[in-house]
Amino acid sequence: MKTNKSYTKRLRVTRKGKIIARKSGQNHFNAKESRKTKTVKRRSRVIEMKPKDRARFLAGSGA
Q: Listed GO cellular component terms (predicted)?
């Protein structure tokens, strides 16, 4: 099965196998948001993923 490229571009896999992603909704329309909201959105988050889903979405990426 092919790797879902659009999905893998949003993710980073650490050495220990954790999957880290950016928070959603931070690309544009940020002018009216408060400073606190922007700061929170800059943080990455760890994604919990079942082994079956990991194999499906990250098949050829070495994850």
A: ribonucleoprotein complex; ribosome
